[in-house]
Amino acid sequence: MAKEDEILEELKRIRGLLEPKPAPPAPKGFWAEFMDFLSKYKVMGMAVAFILGLYLGALVKALVDDLIMPVLQFFTSETNWEAIELGPSA
Q1: DSSP per position, 31-87
Q2: Percentage above 70 pLDDT, the chain
Q3: Residue 49 placed within a domain
């Protein structure tokens, strides 16, 4: 009888895995998500997110300036990267 119970439990587990999952919630928009974030994490969460954003920006800038650009300048030594302008000049 124990073997049959094991089989039944396994079939129940498989049935649970095969049941359709509920659809994810529809996107609420930027302002609604921001207000939801503020209500959930208050000002402390906003401060932590701001600080993390600052340090992440500094990390990306350091990565580009100290790692990626020297490699690019090595392979394109005759290109003056500081003189390149993006977009139309006014």
Answers
A1: HHHHHHHHHHHHHHHHHHHHHHHHHHHHHHHHHIIIIIHHHHHHHTTT--GGG---S
A2: 98
A3: yes
- Which range of residues forms the domain containing residue 73? 42-78
The pLDDT tens digits for 52-63 are 999 999 999 999
Report the domain count for the chain.
Answer: 1
Assigned domain for 36 exists:
no
Q: How far does Cα 2 stand from its chain's mean position? A: 47
Say whether pLDDT at 88 is over 80.
Answer: no
Has residue 89 got a pLDDT over 70?
no
CA distances from 8 to 4, 14, 17, 18, 61 (A): 6, 10, 14, 15, 57
In a domain, 10, yes or no: no
Comparing CA positions, the residue from 66, 69, 71 lying closest to residue 82 is 69
Task: Say how far apart CA 18 and CA 11 lie, in whole Å.
Answer: 10
